[in-house]
Design brief:
Length: 135
Amino acid sequence: MARQTRPEDIQQTYLHVLDGGTTLPIPVLETFWQELSSGAYPQLEQGRLMSAYTFSEPWAVWERHLAGEELVMFLSGAATLLLASEHDEVIPLASTQVLLVHFPAGTARLEIIPGCDHNSVSDSAAYFSLLRAGR
């Protein structure tokens, strides 16, 4: 029988969730991702792999999963999207950039709408695209 993993162990143990709901722990090793990419865990081709991380700095890059899925979930805090017009004369871009640093690391993102000022931002397709996507 698989060892029961307590929630507080999630950063030391990955969880392999099988399609039927059975959950099996996989110890976190420094070599895990290298071993996974070389085929050492064929059982992970079925089901889902769950893990948890904490971040004290904003993410420098976002990953792309071309043949898979990823769910990013906040366990504390909230996600905030800040939108700014590149040439805003009412709320200068520098002010919005200062606001961004007041959010906990990784919980807010700044998107700059290019070529717009304060009164023309709502005419931008990029603005509406970001609002619809919520990201």
